[in-house]
Write a structure and sequence with these properties.
179 residues; alpha+beta; 2 domains; three-stranded mixed sheet; Hypothetical Protein Ychn, Chain: A; 18% strand; rod-shaped; Ribosomal Protein S8, Chain: A, domain 1; 6 strands
Length: 179
Amino acid sequence: MQTNLEAADEIARQLRLRNVGGLIIGDFIDMKSRKDQQMVYNLMKERLKRDKAKTHVLPISPLGLIEMTRQRVQESLSDTIYENCPYCGGRGVVKTSMTTSVELHRTLNTVMRKYQDSIHEIRVILNPDVLKRLKEEDEELLVELERRYAGRLMFRGDPTFHHEKFTITDANTGAELKA
């Protein structure tokens, strides 16, 4: 029972500290005595009275579970400390050089088809890692694009460009070309 009393105290503290909201289930060590269960339940209710968030607690079930709901009063601690990654948008991953290369090839195909009568020299600015991939593994695809649309592709690696970013421009005017 002593362990469960300490756990109830810590659960209440962690709920406030981490600003946990929603439906919460606490799993306590089995207690045979209904009196012990009531003591843990009462301690939990008492500790949650100090909480500014609206909390509703149900008595401990026969399985040793305590169910409660808690309203979140402010942003969670992680929302306060962290922000989504500007590179991956909070996904936790970025596209590979191969994926960016495929996307670039598709975009170039569309752009060159769209401007085939008016623009014949196109400059592409991209991350050096993606440029390396293009030169080493996708060069044949680019030569085919140039041949198909009677155009010339020029590439420039820019280390300040994110792995997933590339810019396609008219080589003569510098105007950006959209697909």
